[in-house]
Amino acid sequence: MSAYSTTMIENDISSQILSAAEARFTEYGYGKTTMAEIARDCGMSAANLYRYYKNKLDIGSAMARLFFTEEYRHLAKIVYREDLSSVAKLEAFVLHTLHHCHKYFTTSPRIIELVEVMSVQNPCVCNDHQQQKIKLLQELLTQAQEKGEFKVDDVAASAEAIHMAMLTFHLPMMMPRYTLKELESGATTLCKMIVVGLQPQTN
């Protein structure tokens, strides 16, 4: 068997494990799921499961990365669209962040719970994702600067500030406090305020 074939098989088994873990976490939650149960759902021994993931935290971290990767891919598409103005991109960026979190909070609350657990037990996973989002915001601001749509004195600091201002719209604990309509209204208003501060002043 070639090295490529071996890698494909290993990847398939890893994906199978994550699918089984997701089903378990979705139904019972991260805390109540054991490695032995995941192994049994995969039709393998616990010892074999440990060949792929060293512990449950390792599996949870991999699942959190999948959750974040899904969001990142959509946000990157928004930033690099050529048919949108910078103002439209910013609003789409903030609203997609909100909708992504809200969708999982309402349809798969235990997956959101998993992400919250990872933010405490393996914060590097969440921190890496937040840094990726900030870099996308930097790219958005750089594009806007080059087009003359925004005037940004410090792209890095501005991207960081926008990300901090967006926190309400991608923190799971905020989802039950407001209706989706209220959150969307707040996100849209925030974008308008940011744009006012970034657009070049005309005399």
Description:
The protein has 203 residues and is mainly α. It has two domains: 1-54, Homeodomain-like (Arc Repressor Mutant, subunit A, Orthogonal Bundle), CATH 1.10.10.60; 56-198, Orthogonal Bundle (Tetracycline Repressor, domain 2), CATH 1.10.357.10. It is 75% helix and 0% strand. It contains nine helices and no strands. It has helices spanning 3-28, 35-42, 46-49, 56-79, 86-107, 109-121, 123-147, 155-165, 180-198. Helix 4 packs across helix 6. It is elongated and about 70 Å long. Mean pLDDT is 89; it is low at 1-8.
SSE series: HHHHHHHHH
The CATH class label of the largest domain is: Mainly Alpha
- Determine the number of helices (DSSP H or I, runs of at least 4 residues): 9
Count of folded domains: 2
CATH 2nd-level architecture of the largest domain: Orthogonal Bundle
- Quaternary class: single chain
What is the rounded distance between the termini?
Answer: 71 Å
State the total count of DSSP E strands.
Answer: 0
Write down the Rg.
20 Å
**What structural class is derived from the secondary structure elements?**
mainly alpha
Mean pLDDT: 89
